[in-house]
Every structure is written in C-alpha cells, then in structure tokens.
Amino acid sequence: MKDKRTSLSFRIFRANIKRNALIFVAILLTTFMIASSLSVAMSFLATLDLQNVQRRGTASHVQMMNVSERAVAQLQDMDFIASVGVARRAADVVFFADEFSMVYYDETYWQYHKLPALLDVQGRLPQAVNEIMLSRRFLFQLGITEPVLGMNVTIHFSTADGQGHRAPFILSGYYSSFEEASWHEPLGVPVSADFFYTLGNSAIATARAGIIFQNDRNIPQSISQMQNALYRPFSLYRPSDFNADSPAALMAVIAVLIALLMVTGFLLIYNIMNISVANDIRLYGLLKSLGTTPIQIYGIVIMQAVILCVVAVPLGLGLAAVLSWVFVPMVLQILAVQMTLVVSLSPVIFIGAATLTTVTTLLGSLSPAKKAARISPIEATRYTEQELNKKRGLFPTRGRPFLLALRNIFFRNKKRMTTVFFSLFFSSVLFMTVAIISLSMDAEQYLGGIFEENNFSLRHWPRGPQVVEAVDSSVTFNEPVRKIDEAYLHRLALLPGFLSMRYITRAGGFLTYTDEFLPYVRAAQGFHRLFITDADGTSRPATEREHAEHFAHMTAPDFLRRHFITSVYGVCVHEVYVVRHIFDPPIDMDAFARGETALFSSNRAPHLLADIKNIELELSGGVFNFEMAGVTTRMFGDIRNFAFGDAPAIIVAKPFLEAHAMTFVYQVDIRVNEAYEPLALMELETLTEHDAEILFGARLIERVGVQSMQLLFWAIGGSVAGVIGLTGLLNFINVMSVGIMSRKRELAAMESIGMTRKQVRDMLVFEGALYAMVVLTAAAVPGNLIAINLFNLIYNLDGTNVFNFRYPFILFILVALLILAVCLFTPLITYRMINKSTIVERLRE
Amino acid sequence: MSILTTQNLKKHYITESNTVRALDGVSIKITAGEFVAVVGTSGSGKSTLLHMLGGLDKPTEGSVTIEGNELFDMNENELTKFRRRHIGFVFQSYNLVPILSVYENIALPIELDKGKPDQSFIDELLGVLGIADKKYAMPNQLSGGQQQRVAIARALAAKPSVILADEPTGNLDSRTGRDVLDLLKSTSIRFNQNMVVITHNENISRFADRVIHIEDGKIIDNPEGNEDER
The pTM is what? Predict the structure, then answer.
C-alpha cells in the first residue's frame, strides 16, 4: 500500500504542474531568503568574533597581570588550559597621541595570542637588540606611510627609572592592527628578548600571561577552576567584547525577517495546497470510498509537499551558497566596515534554512492534508468551497456584478481571502518601510553636517609634543609646527574652480578650574569606557560608583587645577555672526571680536556648561577673562579638546587668538565650483600625499560612500521586499486564477441562465479590484503608520544624521498601480483562458 | 402554433480519423403548451440537441427558431439576453450559484436583465415546488431533490417561452426523480409552459405529451410527424 500511496502521490503531483511550479517557487524563494538571512547573521557573528580579537589585540581568553615565572609554569601544567604565553613590558613609547609600550612577546604569546589579532603581517618578530616591529598606525604617526623592512626608525621611550631615551631601531617587521588601547594596557610594540634583558633593572618588567582555555564555551567556569588550582589571589583581566549590543539588535532584525519570510511562505504554500486539495477533493473522496484510510490520504498530500521540498530546498540552498560569496560580504561591509570580513558557510545556515523551510512547507500542507483526510466520500461529491450557510450579514446582490463580486470575496472563502490579504499587506508594508528608509537616506544632509557648503576639509593633526604642558603648577607653551602657512593657503587658493576658503586656528590654553566645572568633568568622564574584571574573571562595564572611584583622582579639585588643559580655537567673526541668534541672548558680536566673549565647544555634556558665565584662560600671551556666550556642539567642524584631561574646548575670535597665542592653522574648509571638484580632489591628493599630519576629507569621496551605502540598502532591502512582494502577488494570482478556474462550471451555468460575458467579466474584475482596494486602503493607512513608525525607530537609533524623512509618493503610486494592474488583469486573463472553451464544454467539466 | 422549430440541424465533429455526426439533420416542431420528452441512449445526440435548442452550442448546419427568432442569427450578447428572457434551463447537476440563497438563485436571471422579480410569482413557485420554507436557505443546506426544485423554479421564474431540462432526474434517486418529473409536468400545465425534457429513461414517456426518440443523431420516432419538413 505504501508503494501505491507514493505512486498515487506522484501521479497527483504530476497532474498539478501549475500548482507545483508555484509551490516550487515559493519554497525556493523561502529557502534562499532564509539561508541568506542566516548567512548574514552567522557571518556577522564570525566577523564580530574575529574583530573582537583584532580590537582586543589578543586571542587570549583571559590575561593574568604581574605574573611570576612560577605561576606561568603552574598554568602551563593545567590540562584545561590550551596555551599560556607571556608578554613582558620593557618600556613606554613617548610623544605619541596613542599610548604604546615596547613589549617582548614570547613565542607562544606571539603565535597564538598576538598573531590572530593582526592583519597583513610583513617581516618577522625582532631578534636583535636593535630590531623592532611596528604597526602601520605607529609608522603612520611617525610619518612613514610606505614602510620598508630594514629601514631605520628612531623611537623615544621611557624606562621604569623615569629616564627618557632616544634610540635608532631597524624595522624587522610591520603589520596592521585594530587594537584599541585599554586603560590598563597600552598598545604593544614588539621588541626582542635581547632588548628587554639589555634594559636590566630599568625595564618596566611587568609580565602578563595570556591564557587560552581548551573549552571556550564556559570561560567563567574555567577561570574558577584555574583560581582553585593556583591557591592564591591574582589579578585577572578578561578582554571585553566590543559592540556587545549590536549582535542582539541584529539577531532580532534577522529573526523578524525570517519570521516574515516564513509567514509569507506559509500563507502562499497553505493557500496553494488548500486550493489544490479542494480541486482534487472528489478524488480523495473516491479513494476513501475505495478503502484508503485517512492517514494514508494525509500521507498522500504531505508526500507531495515533501517531493517539492526535496527538489526546491537544495536548489534554494545552492543559490544562497553561491550568492553568499557576493552578497554577504557586501552586507557585512555596511554592518562592520574597515576590518576583516568573514563569510560564514557554517552548516547551521544550511541545516537551519532547510529545516525552517521544510517546517514552513509542512505547516502549510498540514491543514489541507487534514481536510483531504477528513472528507467523507459523500461529502466529497457534494463539496463546494463556500463556507456560507447562514443568511446573517448577507446583503442583496440584485444580479449586479459588483454586489456579486462583493459576496464572492467576503462570503465564499473568508480564510482564503484573509491569507491573500495578509500576504499582500505584509509585502506592501515591508516594501514601504524599505522604500522610506532608503529614500530618506540623505547623502547631502549627511555631507552638509560634515562639510557644510564646502567641498573639501583639510586638517593638521600635529604629531609632536603637546602645544601646552602642565607639570605641577607651571604651564609650558610649546611653539607649534605650522604646516599650513601662508604659502600653503596660497596654494590652496589656486585649486581648480576655487571659490572660497575659511580656516580655523588652534592654540593650547590652560583653563582656570573652578568647582562650577565639576558636574561637566564628571559627565565628560562618563564617556570614558571603563570595564571592571570581577573575581571570577568576567569583565563588565563599571557601575557608576566604580567609575566615580576610578576617576576620583581625576576629579579631585587639586588634580584638575593642575591639569585643566584645553584646545582653544580661533574662528572668523563673520561665521559666529551668522549663527549668533541661535544663542540666548544672541552673542554680542563686538565683545566677541574684542576677545571679551567666548564660546564653549563640547558634544559630551554641553548642558552642564550652559550656566558657566565667566572663565579665566591662560594663553601663551597672558591670562584673559571671558564672558561665556554659550555652548556649541557640532559647529565649525570637529572642534573639541584634544589635550589630555576633560576641560571643554574654547572658541574665540580668530584675530584675538592670533594676537595673544601661538596658533597654527588647524582646519581649512574649501569651496570649489562643482564642475572642478574631481580636478581639485586630484590636486589636493597630490598636495597632501606625503604628509601624514595633513588629513583631508572630500565631499566627493564621502558622497560616493553614502550613495553606495544607499544603493546597497536598496539592493538588500529591495530584494527582501521584492521576494516577499512577489510571494504576496503570486499568492494573489494563484488564489484568483485557481478560484476562477474552479468556478468554471458555475460561471458557465451563470452564462447559460443569461449572464452575459460582460457581466461575468465585470464581476470577476470587480473581485480583483476589491482585493486591490482593501489591500491598498490597508497599506495606505495602517501600513503607512507601521512603516513610518519602523522608520522612526531606525531614525532614533541612528547617530550619523544621514536620515531626512522623505515619503516616496511616486514609488508608492507606481506600486499601487502595479498591484491594481495585477488584481485587474489576473481575473481578466484567467477568464479569457477559460472562455476559449464553449459553455457546453465548460458545463460538462 | 409552433413555439420552437428546428430545421435540418446538424452538428459534426471532425476528428483525426473520421467525422462524428452528433446531430444529423434534425427537424422538430414544438407547439404551445407541449411537454416533449426527447429519449435516446447515451451518445445518441440528445444533449447536443438540447444545447442547440438553448443556443448554448452552434450547429454545423441548420437553424433553431424560438417564437419566430432565429437563434444563430444573433451575436453572442444578443443570444445570452434572448436566453435569459425566453429560455429556462434545468441541468442534471442543478448548477445553482453556491453564494446565492434559494430566492436569489431563482431571481438571478430576472435581475441580470435588470428586471424586478415578481415576488408573489416566486413565492407561488416555491409553494408549488414544496420548498417555501427554504426561500432563504443556501444551496449547500439543501438535498439534491430540493436543489433540483430550486433549479426548476429558477427556470420558470422569468416566464420563458420554453424550458429545456437536461436529464433533470439523473442525479436523483427514483422516488425523488419521479417527484421532480411530476412537478415539471404539473408546473408546465399550471403555468402553460413549453417543456423539452432530455432523458435516457423510457419511463418518462408517461409524463410527456409527446416522446421523440433519437438515435445516432437522427430522429427515429416522432409521433407528431415532422417528416414532411425533413
């Protein structure tokens, strides 16, 4: 019987080619989209893992601080530890924006803890005493953009005895690193064992053991196991993961997406199977009368779904695997720019997608199979699909095509109508959301936030000593290096299509600390990320109290009085004049020009500066008092305090600053004629390429970036919305055409009793129009509300100022027209198809 | 006075190997108030004849005239309108519209013609047919016999010139079938309707005023004798 059943399944399967094609497409698309979504999620997780290793600068699960040789030996003996490497800090590099220390890594640390975190490694670990290995970031800060192995580099460093040294080294290797310095550990610069031991007692000599456990699933448990085995307290540091929140948010989005794909897939498969079972119901009744049991009939229906799954799922998976190599890296590029991208081809993706799609298909077939199994032979002969058996809620039809259509839609098969409606509704909402988000990405607004009306922005980032240093109670002002001088500005003015230029100067300043600043300093320090390692070795963000305790010495009035160093910016009086009304009261421009009024600039806790009305500021030319007119956040470019400490940056009038401080040109914004933008860009690239201290941004380059992001979003969102939309439309086309086909005899009977073809056609077209009307109304009101709310959600999460709400009217009208056209033409075409046979032929079917 | 006349009606189907003559020169005449039974075996051409009489199918040759109107001179649209005004159909499988109630099914041909159904006449029909209590029921709430009665009522409602019934008892048990035939006969007398009933059942002859026998697409026995018109 089983063979017969399978063979029957095959026969029924073969007899339903159109239905099979539709379900096949539905399964294929569902598999493909679920696999792609899972692939993005898994690849993102894998990328995040690798990036975490790269940003932590180590693959160690945990690091033990100030470790002794004996402890290292003990750790190496523990069988649950896979690897123990030791990094010994020799000296600290000085005069750098980033904190670097020279470290001697043993072979194990270098191979298993350090190398996995590095990229594009050239050369080798230092062997000789005068060899050094540097990151490209370090080399860049030395002004070396094209390093060569064996080249000489001079390093300033300080040793444990407080002595400063300046020594030449030979570059034995270099690499790229995305390591971020943490408060307890500067960035490592590999040096040789010989160098470390040569320093002798003056070496800083703190040793740190990197530990990788055998089992990375339950690190806290391994840590406590290690703790018990060592019998004594030790200081542990567990490198914390970055972006801990983003995977959860991404996973939620992927889960919603997969759920949506499953729901639309389910609706389509359910509807097709349901219609197909309804059409074959007499056959199932007949089988039953011949002795087929309900379970066997159930099996026949399910088997058809299984056959389709067996063919469509692997194809969908194959398609997804092929596209993963192209599609996933593109998505990851957006989600996690800069660093290494990992394309995951984990079996979880394929098993997951295959399982979810098969479950969707089986769920979609379950209820139709039940219907086929339950029908009695007698019922089957009398089976009509309409559910209507109560006169309640019926309105008169009066033989009018429109009213007949209305009755057909709302009373013939409510379930089917509902599934088609939701299928179309979901896809329109998703489409609208994607469209609103994509269209609202405003490249010009985003660029305006960076460049204002300018095309280029040049910045001088001095690498040398700080322009102002405070040691104990004495303040030293150093003469800054002036890279952008008169001659340089003159060259900029000769750029092709040059229209205008403005520049901002910068100087070092020493702000007199008063207690009024304390709330601001505390809040500003809140922006420092602090992680605490608990006794079990787990790392977590510090609580408010721990944070306060840690930074307590930096908020002590005594400390602040000695370290309230800031960056002072000189801007054109005219530029402040333009924005003077933003402030309450408006800035007194005369007082600003005379240097009696100044502005704070901070985007950390600007509101806490609003009440500070007077400051005392020491510049190299003397001590000055200013009345504070207000606080700016994102004005005049990236103005903030680059000095050590948490004092806010100060903005004063440029002529005043130039008269009373040692200034240098910090930023130049250039506006050129748009037609000359590419030419000007080329010249600027040539002008700045050999100077690591001059950085420039170009609207043209940024615009391409934003536009490609927008395009990519369209491609991804559009394809998801497209697939779901296609599923919705397929569902409609299928329901409508099969619905008309199955009413072939009924329509012929209506024609035979005097309904003209035009009347039949009108009735069917009205049915399509009603679907379109209901869906479009739902899409226009609740659909729009959902889409706009989803946009707002994303808008509020965004910190880049790239969104500017725009409603895609024309696109929606086009989509509405498409839906309308499909809804009107499907019944028309189907009716034309069935009309090819005569009334008699149709009556006989 | 003849209500319905056919003249040398032929319907030939050409297949790959031969020509099937479903109707081969049928000429009949039905006079006012007549209840005619067309009897023949399966494949004799009786259903084809009925479809021709109702204008549902086009003949290869010949003509059908109802109340002086030549059916096949009309275009598709005119023919449909003519059908709803002058011809009532009763099918073997009832062919009721499942989304319409009994009353709506009966009133449909009139309403499609933008006419106002004669409520009292429909009520009378329902009474005569014994389904007055089913006026607002839906087709799937009715038995086969009841559905066929509704189909008869629908055919009668527009007071057509002729009612064509195609095996009206074919789907019913013998007792219900007999009841339906009784009803067809009595209503044809009561409402003075012309009735042509197609059947393979010889027993039907006792209900009919005249029985026409058809075999291989030809009339083999026509008591009123239209041979002179052949």
Answer: 0.63
